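Let us work through a complete example step by step.
Step 1: write down the sequence.
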Amino acid sequence: MMLLAATMLMFGLSGQAMAYFADGDLIRIVYSATGGNETATDLGSIAGLTTSLTSSVTYNTNNFSISALGSGATTANSYVAYYAYVNDSNYNDNVWTSGNQGGQSIAGSVAVSNFPNAAEAMGGLYSTTPGGAQVTIATSNGGSYYTNMNLSGLGNGQMAGYTPNGDAEKNLAALATTGYVDQTLYYYMDDVA
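Step 2: predict the structure and record it as tokens.
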């Protein structure tokens, strides 16, 4: 396990979408606990976005609006998570998950969680949903982050059981005061070959 980069979430008015929910791309999910929608953004290839352990990266690549999350959505009842997944040419599962700066606990092998299946299901849905590299869907959709990674609300922040402490997502309340939310991106590789 290795800490790759500190990330910050900032919602701005600039930038264009980079890709279309491909394996190996960093995906940002923002959803509201009460709004009923989630917005997924493909931030591009994880290989091009990671930096040394001491570097911070600010992701500000779209014109996201909290109103897209549905009626009643506010920063106080909304959450953000980042993830990436790729099964490499040696059949190793490579997983990146967001979390708190102090460290993250995982379930062990990614194989003991439903993370790979959830990531593939979501990527397939997001790629076929109109909107390109940023799409908004209902959290109740069978292919949504909330349904797959949050186990329909029974495992919020658990990345389909991979991060059992539920620390893979963060509340957006700080946007109202500081204007950003800090998260750390963690990298794991399961050698299954």
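Step 3: interpret the result. DSSP finds three helices and nine strands in the chain.
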